[in-house]
Amino acid sequence: MVQKQPIPAAQISEEDRRTIDRELERLLAHPLFRMSKRLPAFLNYVVHESLTHSELQPPKERTLGVEVFGRKPDYDTNADPIVRVTATELRKKLAQYYYADGHDDAIRIELPPGSYLPKFHRSTDLPAVAEPSAAVPLASSPEVQEKPPAAVSVGADPLQAATLHRTPPAAPWRQAAGVLAGLLIGALLGYLPLFAKLRPTPIARFWTSFAGSNLQVRIVMPVIGTDWASSAKRPSDVSVSPNLSLEDTNIAARVAGQLEKSGQRYLISPAPEVNFADLRTGPAVLIGALDNVWTLQLSKDLPFVFQESADGRTGSIVESKPDAQVKPRIWSVDITTPHQRIGQDYGIVARYKSPLTGQPAMVIAGISSQGTQAAGEVVTIPSSLESALRTVTNSENFEVVIQTTAVGGRAGPPTVIASKTW
User: Fold this and answer.
1) Under 8 Å between Cβ of 216 and 284
2) Could you tell me the superkingdom of the organism this chain comes from (predicted)?
């Protein structure tokens, strides 16, 4: 098992520097980075800045704009967010490189959220978990080993000696049965903790039941800027900003972790690179809504669906199949609100067999990024999943609508406000 260990700046050796340089070369040569106009220069600059000035403050946004992108020293960083956009894109690409493509390099380069100074992590192999040791045969233990008959010393009391010799030895089969019983009890006691660990948790059962086959699970990611309904009309500074990419990538990584724990194979793909034939080959996890065409396509017949207003200003979750003589419920968010200022968002978590693909599908999506964050929490955090499942009572096909209160662009705990099963 591989574990990432952060390398403190003061402990980066010359050998580490050479390894980091080689890792940087691999990244820059990979199509994820090589095909970009901005990422190679940005990545190269911040990595060498980290190695050269590791004890100093991280580089400022304005400095990067001037040094990397040739902006004027007095340029307006609010009007020209090229550094923030590039940093967000870099975080997404690094996560895709290491998580989606399965690279297991000696040193990983990561750009923490909110910082322009990379961190380096050394990949180390954890020792294998020791197998439970076999129970020690009770007959070989000094404390319980059967004692031989006491020897009768010369001059001993004849009556006592006669009494000792009159005690018949245990039959061989009884001795063997006793030893065998001891072995079985010892083995059971030794393996009880292991049995407890092997008992599947509710979250493990949830993911195993979703993808309980040998088919590969496809995790379909949204791509910012591909608003299939009204991309030409949406302003550039709306809540589904480039920051959503990082959040979606984090959710995909957590979902991949749950699938891996359940022994499932998976593949992470951006929505534009997925076609309908791909989705017919196995289960699909659909992340994000308004920037993921496949979420919109495969969820359009669910009891609750995502909709966007004609002017591209409002995103909504609408009850498409209300009970008779009941007005449909609607939950809406103004998606022209800046990302950090959205205070309340809504999302959907659905698990069902898609009639379009004939395969299991799962939707993890919000109207904006905070709703998607909260939906991701429902399916990857045991306590949140337990609360959601209480409303759907073991149904194979279900859909829940969640609500979350957000602060500074971060979602709070999800609350289920509506649910349907079928």
Assistant:
1) no
2) Bacteria
